[in-house]
Amino acid sequence: MSNDNEELTSTSQQAADWWVAMQKVTPAPDEKREFVDWLIRGPERVEASLRLARAHTAISRADMPWPTMSADELVREALASPVDSVVPFRLSSPRKHEETRRAQTLRWAAAVAASLVVAAGLLWWPLPAHPEQYQTNVGELRSVLLADGSRVTLNTASKIEVRLGTDHRSVKLLQGEALFEVSHDPLRPFEVDAGTVVVRAVGTAFDIDRRATRIAVTMTEGQADMIALNPGAVKLPTLFARDRLIIEQGGATALEHEVNTSETTAWLQHQLVFHHRPLGDIAGEFNRYNAAHIEVRGASLRSQEMTGTFRANDVASFVAVLSGMPGVQVVADGAGGYIVTAQAAAASMDHHHG
């Protein structure tokens, strides 16, 4: 199937889901706002919604005399009919004065039947044998628009696998960090497997940062359920906007509220924001984004805290700040990186090597 057809199928499916949701007696105000937000994101969405509305109006007419032919016969008629008589959904045909009422009725029924058959065929189209994979290199950011309308933005050195099915949407965050902006679809939950936890939502936004020893899930809007994958793990809470759940390698968890989400996602603007963070941690963050690594030696120096905002790829500015700190010495490591030590330790090392 071509990319154009994939995009059309995705938009049509979303339009159908929204049509069902909006047929409620009293749709929730939030749901209405989400529908409008979805609708105004592209003219193809308006077209798909209008196409559904026209089809619904056509087949719901009180004076519509449905034929007694079987579905198989209708499909055969549809396939045998000229293309221009099957695809459009028009309330009146330019040729209606030339056709008998039975022929008009048959044509409408054939169009509806053919459309339903095509939709069903697309809906049950077999999933690819392998999931789609997306990844970034060190220092690279990448934004991916999925077929369901969701967007995933990958941070540096990150990798995901995506499977979109007829009744589910699943992603595996294999490494790194990603921001997930999930399109609203109550019929297909969106699940992200981060190794020890699954984040399940139907329409929201959240950041997952997967490290070697911990996983951090930060909700930027909406809410999502947390599902622990480790046997015997404690039940995890539902997260709401500005909540963060940290899961340590040993299973310990910490729940934070009123998190500054703009700082959490500052990496989208290639920024690193630190508040009273140990120098060892800050150096580790810079090392995630750059091939030139910074090594801070000495437990006391590594634990010294700093506050500041830096460009993720601007190692030189961070090194300049370190060089200006009293009692700190920075030297090149000969491989493009830097070694940071306390001056007393550096003097001791020089004496030893001398």
Attribute tags:
354 residues, alpha+beta, Jelly Rolls, Phage tail protein beta-alpha-beta fold, disordered C terminus
N-to-C CA distance:
70 Å
Q: Any guess at the CATH architecture of the largest domain?
A: Sandwich
Mean pLDDT: 79
How many strand segments? Answer: 18
Order of helices and strands: HHHHHHEEEEEEEEEEEEEHEHEHEHEEH
Percent of residues in helical segments?
25-40%
Beta-strand content estimate: 25-35%
Structural class: alpha+beta
Number of helices: 11
The biggest beta sheet is recorded as: 13 strands, mixed
Query: What number of structural domains do the residues give?
Result: 3
What is the CATH topology assignment of the largest domain? Jelly Rolls
What's the CATH first level of the largest domain? Mainly Beta
Task: Give the C-alpha Rg.
Answer: 28 Å
Low-confidence stretches: 1-7, 82-98, 108-127, 345-354
Question: What general form does the structure show?
Answer: elongated
Descriptive report:
With 354 residues, the chain is an alpha+beta fold. It folds into 3 domains: 3-123, no CATH class; 132-263, Jelly Rolls, CATH 2.60.120.1440; 270-353, Phage tail protein beta-alpha-beta fold, CATH 3.55.50. The chain is built from 11 helices and 18 strands. The strands form 3 sheets. Strands 1, 2, 3, 4, 5, 6, 7, 8, 9, 10, 11, 12 and 13 form a 13-stranded mixed sheet that branches. A 3-stranded mixed sheet has the order 15-18-17. Helix 1 crosses helix 3 (43-59) and helix 4 crosses helix 6 (101-123). It is elongated, with a radius of gyration of 28 Å. Mean pLDDT is 79; it is low at 1-7, 82-98, 108-127 and 345-354.
